[in-house]
Amino acid sequence: MNVLVLNCGSSSIKYQLLNMDAVPVVLAKGIVEKIGLTYGSFTYKPEGKDKVVAEQPIMDHSVGMDLILKALVHPDHGVLKSLNEIDAVGHRVAHGGEYFSESVKIDDEAKAKIKALGEIAPLHNPANLKGIETMEKLLPSVPQVAVFDTSFHQTLPKKAFIYGIPYEYYEEYGVRRYGFHGTSHKFVAEKACRILGWDITEKKIITCHLGNGASITAIDKGKSVDTSMGFTPVAGLVMGTRAGDLDLGALLYICEKEGLDLPKANNLINKKSGVQGISGVSSDFRELQAAMEKGNEKAALALDVFCYNVKKYIGAYAAVLNGVDLIIFTGGIGENDNLVRWETCKNMDYLGIQVDKQKNEVRGKDTIISTEQSTTTVMTVTTDEELVIAMDTVRLS
Q: What's the domain range around 330?
């Protein structure tokens, strides 16, 4: 069974074509960027063949989707003989609100709910819906499935998701903690337990998805019970360009001093803050570490703040769980940055955490990095959100 996985942003489309027979295989992948701008970009990498890169105007998502489909059946670099070989399409949808506690096969009701949630996820859900509707036109007979970033966190107890504001705002507008990166948190927790031979329903796990966007989740007996992102993905950890947890009074003060309206304030906390804002260097941790090694004190501070935030959330969630059996690092930073893992886990003896410095010198592998004496197991686990989407798509198609 061939599944096309799509992640549509406001001006981009990330995609993978996977064959899900027996062992899953990525047949092709790539990205369409700068949709709607004068110069668009199309990248396509078929398995075992050279990458194809083209720059051309890509006026809308329909044009981008058409480029993807034509590449997949191209006589020279295609991986399919015809589009009839695409059996299903899986979509990453950012926000499922309280409507969706699991992935669903897309129908008119699902589309209406995804559209309604555009009010609380204006940067993501409209683009996700656009991808769904475009694919309906291009492949009308192919079943489609929506996989939601928020669905895994629908098991949060009310005490964990209600904010300290008038309750009417939750009732009228749905303002509450939703959490994101759910597909990744669920996937790596289950994967780690398979590797360790553990029953996930007996374990207390803290998953750290660390990338340009970053979040931490407390998982008790296989269910999410708390998570760091909130009503939007800007809450929680200090991230690449996102502020994370911020005193609302401080934001109001800055807005008054700088004369910032709502769009500018939104841009500030989402695009100009985080480690980039602190360092003035970059949101890329490789560039931050290079600057730190050259003596840049703000770059060093940005890394310290990030690691401190991760450590603080691990401690908080250990309290929520009343202990922890396993800590997982995943995502681009979590899987590959040994310095971040080391700085985060040192001086956490009270949780029985001991990381082996030599084992920690690892990138992009599923492996234990804690010592044999450590009473809490610490692992790096590679995530694969596209595979999760493909698996759910197969299950529901």
A: 188-378
